[in-house]
Amino acid sequence: MVTGGIPHVIGRAVLVTEEVDVPPIGLDFPTIAAAILTFAVAYVLARLGAIALSIASEQTVRHRITIKTLIPLARFTIYFLAVLVVFGLLFDLDSTQLVAFSGVLGAVLGLGVQDLFANVVGGVIITFERPYHPGDMIEFGEYYGEVTGIGLRSTTLVTNDDDEISVPNHKLFTESLANANSGKPQLMAVPELHLANEADIEVASTILRDAMRSSPYLYASDECPIVVRVNQQPAYITLRGRAYVNDVRHEFAFQSDVTERALAAFTEADIETASVPVAIDSES
Amino acid sequence: MIPEGIPRPAIEEEFQSILDAGYDTIAVASQPWSGRSQLLDGAAQSLDTDLICVSPGTCDEGSFSLQTDGPVVLDNCQHLFQRRIGGFDTLETLTEDLLGKEGPVVLGWNSFAWQYLAEVTDIQRAVDTVYSIDPMDADAAESFLRETLGVSNPEKALSEAADAHLAERAEADRTSSETALETTGGTLARLRTAVRNRYRGSVVESHLEGLVSDTAGNPTAISHLFQARTDPEADGSPNGFDLSYDETYVLWLVFAAGETTPAALHETTAENVALALSRLERQDIIERSDGLLSVRPLAFGAVHTELSRRRLLW
């Protein structure tokens, strides 16, 4: 290629060329420093926002889950704006650079970070589609716990044993998931007791019902009734209670409270409980 | 239900019309100290019978049955149950009695206990109608304060008291600060007071509404808090609570009963009642009188807010 706009005769053809200016990518030191500073500011803002919203959410049970839902939204918005600002600093958004960058990005993702990208996409989809919210009690695989954070890469659960489980976001779209409260502050708890076949079922049911409706953790309404179900098993009878607690964090306290008081009342009323046989895994 | 804005004396007229409507059973639900006893006393006179007040501990005395003949007016029916296993038996006996009795039967309830019992028992299904004495709004509170305390302008009294309090705070800030900050036109404290006075118009309209909000619309609490805010020598309301969930639950038991005894609380909950009561008394939330525990009127609104926040009130 001949530059300079000077006509150059090659045989019978006249090749006329023009100089093409390709805008440089702004990788000079001030621009890089500004990009780093932008990400640093975004990080600080995202952390402060998450802390402020967490503190606000703990002041109220009724709105805790709603406020916690804002945390990943705020975090995502801040980081997204930071990326836009950095793009504006580093690149002049003309089509040539955009195509070149997209090609490089696609190659990088295809080669090495597809899982990370899938997790980030999963985090975005979770944030906007909300299959669950911070504060929800979800069951995923073998884990059951409260969602304490939805990050761009993973979702954090805290189990009843206070274990913090980090679940990659993309897994939540390939495996089944159960949400116990779907954004509501109340949640159903199911205390279960076992009686001997000779036990007085009517008295035992009344005791279990009283235990649930007198619990300090109860939440009751027309939509959240108290129910006792009786199931006959081969060697014993199962009483299964269903009631709602006023705060998802009271689920296990409610079950303990109801079970403890009901068993004490069973003893006082001479109602015999049953020992439920536990299946033993012969391979263990 | 009473529409907003009607003065409280009209409650009696409205309730009389319900009595005259011929219902067999009527439940009257209201906050404590809101005039329910006077209303039921008037109903008893109207029905030519005696008003029976159920006392704390009645639940323990075995089965409670209604008189077989004639009209019945009962108040404080929340004492017919205890929130424990076996504590609903007396109430269930009452429910069965109501089904077979021809009225009129008028039953008065603490509204917070009624709200709970309506969801966990069949009592609401056993009555023909429920009459609720609503909490006061700002207009009703103003009329109430004029009539009961003889205050000609409650709004003005609250506003002047608030301004005086702000001026005292500003003076205290000025004298206690180690470094005097002088700005053009005066100190920062005087500037803050001046800014507040500049927008006094919007603040004046909200003083009475703020009083109603801080007392959950309870007439007795409104009266006490009004006096506390306008009289510098009067006791103040508690400044926030520091309670665990278990202690807040004990507070609910006292709040929903209106009045109760330590013995009744011990029977109801396995929590450390003595410790909980001690903490509640130290924080000026409850008080004892003749062996009975009750929420302090000045703390009524704050207790209502705290119990709602903890979702012990639904």
Outline:
The complex is a heterodimer of chains A (284) and B (314). Chain A is α+β, with helices and mostly antiparallel strands. Chain A has helices at residues 29-57, 64-90, 95-111, 114-129, 201-213, 251-268; strands spanning 8-10, 13-15, 137-140, 143-150, 154-159, 164-168, 177-179, 187-189, 192-195, 218-219, 227-232, 237-245.
Features:
heterodimer; A: 284 residues; alpha+beta; SH3 type barrels; Alpha-Beta Plaits; 3 domains; 5-stranded antiparallel β-sheet; 6 helices; elongated; disordered N terminus; B: 314 residues; alpha/beta; 5-stranded parallel β-sheet; two-stranded antiparallel sheet; 11% strand; globular
Oligomeric state as shown: heterodimer
User: Could you tell me the strand content of chain B as a percent range?
Assistant: 5-15%
Number of helices of chain A: 6
Average of per-residue pLDDT values of chain B: 84
Judging from the principal axes of the Cα atoms, what is the shape of chain B?
globular
- Range of strand content of chain A: 15-25%
Order of strands across the main sheet of chain A = 6-5-4-3-7
- What is the CA–CA distance across the termini of chain A? 75 Å
Shape of chain A: elongated
Secondary-structure-based class of chain A equals alpha+beta
Strands of the biggest beta sheet of chain B: in what spatial order?
2-3-4-1-5
Estimated radius of gyration of chain B: 23 Å
Into which percent range does the helicity of residues of chain B fall? 40-55%
Q: Which two chains have the most extensive interface, and how many residues on each?
A: A-B, 23 and 21 residues
Largest beta sheet of chain B, briefly? Answer: 5 strands, parallel
Helix content of chain A: 40-55%
Q: Unreliable segments of chain A (pLDDT under 50, ≥5 consecutive)? A: 1-9
Number of strand elements of chain A? 12
Distance between the termini of chain B: 19 Å
Arithmetic mean pLDDT of chain A: 82
Explain what you see:
The complex is a heterodimer of chains A (284) and B (314). Chain A is α+β, with helices and mostly antiparallel strands and 284 residues long. Helices cover 42% and strands 20% of the residues of chain A. With 314 residues, chain B is of the alpha/beta class. Chain B contains 14 helices and nine strands. In chain B, the strands form three sheets. Chain B has a five-stranded parallel beta sheet. Chain B has a two-stranded antiparallel sheet with strand order 6-7. In chain B, strands 8-9 form a two-stranded antiparallel sheet. In chain B, a hairpin with a 2-residue loop joins strand 8 (286-289) and strand 9 (292-295). Chain B is globular. The A-B interface holds A 59-62, 185-186, 207, 210-211, 213-214, 216, 218-222, 226, 246-247, 261-262, 265 and B 83-88, 116, 119-121, 245-246, 249, 252, 269-270, 309-312, 314.
